[in-house]
Amino acid sequence: AFDVLVVGGGPAGAAAAIYAARKGIRTGVAAERFGGQVLDTMAIENFISVTETEGPKLARALENHVREYDVDIMNLQRAAQLIPASSEGGLHEIKLENGGSLKAKTLILATGARWREMNVPGEQEYRGRGVAYCPHCDGPLFKGKRVAVIGGGNSGVEAAIDLAGIVAQVTLLEFDSQLRADAVLQKKLHSLPNVTVITSALTSEVIGDGQKVTGLTYKDRNSSEFHELELEGIFVQIGLLPNSDWLKGTVELTSRGEIIVDARGETSLPGIFAAGDVTTVPYKQIVIAVGEGAKASLSAFDHLIRSSVE
Ligand code: FAD
């Protein structure tokens, strides 16, 4: 059995594995795809101390760093079920989709999240070439340009307010007949001179010139007419889905599926920790996931040294 078993090999899982291995304890990482969301990212300019890098390059660096240590890396392994220890100090079990099973004294759950997509023509083709999901990451790339934000919930309205300070013009498109964001955010949004809000709008296509985004088409749900907007960027803000379906009924989750953790990264179950985008920790960023992974790992170590000797 492992002392620490990390589930997930993104920035949070990689950091957790390195911190555990440096304590000289038996450490394993089971990941469906080592690298996580970083693999789907092109320009990364906000991982502090690395001025500029590309996702696949950073993912390789994460893996190489983990491989410097005695860590059992189990790539292409998808966890299907968590069976918590039946008694304090017992072993937790992770059942894998391939039928295998792994046991550990402590667990660090770091299975990340994924952006909800619009599923319209052009979205995949222009992903990273005008279609973006993270205003903190990609906002500055659109300085002085025109962008749309899709989604009028809190994250969409926050993104529109944020982007309005960087870009020339923001158009916020909401499917419903009204925005769903908090009133205080809506008030701020409406006070901004370079933001236009269009409600009852169903985005139907991302348009591009083969290289990059040049606009989008939306359907006015009241008149059923289609309209076109010319712009350079589209920020999709219709939800971030935590990869926690497999945990339902075990560790406590919020209604949105985020694993509830305390300040030390511990979940509702003793000896089971979590880190990164899959948790309730706000602001889903690489630098934050790395810090949270390190923290959860130190907490797991602290748990181990306090557990009764068998
Ligand atoms: P993830 O990176 O999501 O990793 C999760 C890991 O868990 C993966 O290895 C996955 O395969 C694995 N996994 C999932 N389910 C299971 C399972 N059931 N069993 C086993 N393994 C599983 N952040 C920035 O700071 N700067 C940026 O510029 C930036 N740009 C981004 C651009 C894009 C297009 C995207 C999608 C995200 C971007 N982000 C950026 C966000 C950043 O990538 C995430 O915040 C970060 O990767 C979260 O790390 P994580 O380790 O928590 O999760």
From TrEMBL:
Residues 2-293 form the FAD/NAD(P)-binding domain. It comes from the Bacteria. Keywords: Disulfide bond, FAD, Flavoprotein, NAD, Oxidoreductase, Redox-active center. Its cofactor is FAD. Homodimer. Serves to protect the cell against DNA damage by alkyl hydroperoxides. It can use either NADH or NADPH as electron donor for direct reduction of redox dyes or of alkyl hydroperoxides when combined with the AhpC protein. Belongs to the class-II pyridine nucleotide-disulfide oxidoreductase family. This is Alkyl hydroperoxide reductase subunit F. It comes from Stutzerimonas xanthomarina. The lineage of its organism: Bacteria, Pseudomonadati, Pseudomonadota, Gammaproteobacteria, Pseudomonadales.
